[in-house]
Amino acid sequence: MNLIKRLINYKITPLICLLLLSAWLSQQTLAATTIQVSTDRNPVNINESFKITFTANQSPDDDPDFSSLEQDFSVLNQSSGSSSSWINGKSAKTLQWSLSVMAKHAGTLIIPAVKFGHDVTSPLQISVTEAITTKASNNDEDIFLEVEASPKETYIHTQVLYTLRLYTRVDLAQARLDEPELADAVIERLGDDSRFNTQLHGLDYSVTERKYAIFPQKSGKLTIKPLVLTVELISNNRPNYNGFFNSQATKTKRIESKAITLDVKPAPAAFTGKHWLSAQQLVLKQDWSGDIEHMKLGEPLTRTLTLLAKGATVSQLPELNTTLSNDQLKAYPDQPVLQEQKKTDGVIAFREEKIALILSKAGDYRLPAIQIPWFNTVSQKMEMAEIPETLLTALASAKTVVSSPQITPVTTQAITTTPTITTRPETNYWLWSSLLLAIGWFITVIVFLKRRTKSESFTQDASVNSDITDCIKALKKACSQNDSQASKNALIAWGRLTFNQSTLGGIADYCDVRLREEILHLNQSLYGKASKEWQGNTLFQAFTENKARQKKTVAKDNSLEPLNRL
After folding, report:
1. 35/124 Cα distance (integer angstroms)
2. Peptide bond into 43 cis (omega under 30)
3. Residues 124 and 168 both lie in one domain
4. Sign of dihedral through CA atoms 511, 516, 520, 523?
């Protein structure tokens, strides 16, 4: 209706109005909303509940119709919600529908397409296993722990998935669980806890599952100590007296899991690599910023080497760059980018190296092959990740050819020819003089205006730099006093001058990872529900490091500039 009113206000004819309206409606129909479907676990047990989440970045055509799920799944409960964010001056909205379901039978099931009016989701496959008949020896209790490790026989520095599950069918007031302990091992917690319901021997249990990745650092028999859970159970027995201030009756219980022993073997003798590296999957690749077959002398070309390993840590990944500088080729490596992602199925390690290469002589240059031997923990075989030998070709720059002028000999006929003399009017002299004076006056005005602009610009830049310095001093003082509100004001003043941003979220988008996290932590402490006492030293340290990195980047850019002139 608002669109029709606007068209009428602009006095557009009914025919054009109708055509515009139909085009707008057809565009809205064609732009279907994309709705993503995901589950919190896969596979699942037939007696376990799991969550199906539908996520959209804009409002779908209509409310969802979940009746298609009822053939293979029982819908226990459902909820929906939305969230909005503002990133780099653009608003983003996320809508979610979450369903807690339980499979009706085992096997490979398909979560069918769900209709949101004209918008339809894609089907999703999920594996449902048979019911588990045996659990821990104390599975008749109201609460117990179960732990497992996979695999129990492994190699040194190889990932072992350690899973613990807490089964309970009573209400808990408080719970405290120890972390797994294993000498000579690196232990990483994977993702957030997952919660679901299941049945054991006809009893309903609520299950909390937590996963860890363990990387043994030496070979031999290694034992993971039992986990200790201390809980306060809400007692059903009421006290003999009543009172408004009486606390709820609880009882404390201590529960232990079983110990698990790992058989860790040294690296197999068949592995011939210099550095032992084991993973479930490994990918090595290279990318170039330009054409390696038509390089220009003196101009840099960036080579990007990337190594991705599933089931390994960043510290296990070797260096990738093997190119050394010589008379023909200059190599300028950048600092490597190292990242780790902790998924529910293990750790994913990432290493990226960028090298600027400059050829100073025309011709071909061969970069040696890069080979990384690694042990595949899935196939239990040694494999080789390789980037083959790469050929670079630099073309000679085109030289300017200066042709010799041709001299025409003077003939006698040319000498004897009588020249034609043209008499110029006297008024041409005054015309050209006036024109030259006007041009000179015009140039003088332009030079004066440029000098004035530069002077004003310099004065303005000096004023802005002075204001930024004052903001940094105020931020340092506020952080040293742990004054979160004053720190926020100083950051906003600095962000307004530096990035033209006046919110903490907008400023965080322009900073590096660590400073962005500290700014968001400050924002959470100011406006979060469960705000804690804020400490400002880490924020200012991250601010200082962010400033140093920016200076370092500018210095690197300036240092490469003379090389382009070779």
Report:
1. 12
2. yes
3. no
4. negative
3-class SS of residue 119: strand
Q: Are residues 377 and 323 in the same domain?
A: yes
CA distance 364 to 295: 10
C-alpha to C-alpha distance for 343 and 176, rounded to whole angstroms:
24
Per-residue pLDDT at 374: 95
Q: Contact, 345 vs 375, CB < 8 A? A: no
Is 406 domain-assigned?
Answer: no
Domain that holds residue 9: 1-25
- The 8-class DSSP code of residue 513 comes to H
Residues 259 and 298 in one domain: no
Shared-domain flag, residues 58 and 89 = yes
Assess whether pLDDT exceeds 90 at residue 224. yes
529 within a domain of the structure (yes/no): yes
Q: Give the distance from CA 362 to its chain's centroid.
A: 40
Residues contacting 107, CB < 8 A, separation 6+ = 127, 128
List the helix and strand counts (H, then E) for the chain.
Answer: 8, 30
Q: What is the pLDDT of residues 291-339, one digit of tens each?
A: 888 888 888 889 999 999 999 999 899 999 888 888 888 889 998 999 9
In angstroms, rounded to a whole number, what is the distance separating the alpha carbons of residues 413 and 75?
111
425 band by pLDDT with thresholds 50, 70 and 90:
very low
User: Is 437 a domain residue?
Assistant: no
Q: What is d(CA 330, CA 328) in angstroms, rounded to the nearest whole number?
A: 7
The answer to whether position 219 is within a domain reads yes
Angle (deg, nearest 10), helices 484-498 and 513-527:
130
**Token pair for 64:** 């969802």
**How many structural domains is the chain composed of?**
5
On whether both 227 and 124 belong to a single domain, the answer is no
Task: Look at the pTM and tell me if it is higher than 0.90.
Answer: no
Helix (H, G, I), strand (E, B) or coil at 460: helix
Instruction: Tell me how far apart the alpha carbons of residues 50 and 43 are, in angstroms, rounded to a whole number.
Output: 10
CB atoms within 10 A of CB 491: 28
Burial of residue 426 (CB within 10 Å: 0-12, 13-18, 19+) is exposed
How far is 210 from 378, CA to CA, in rounded Å?
Answer: 23
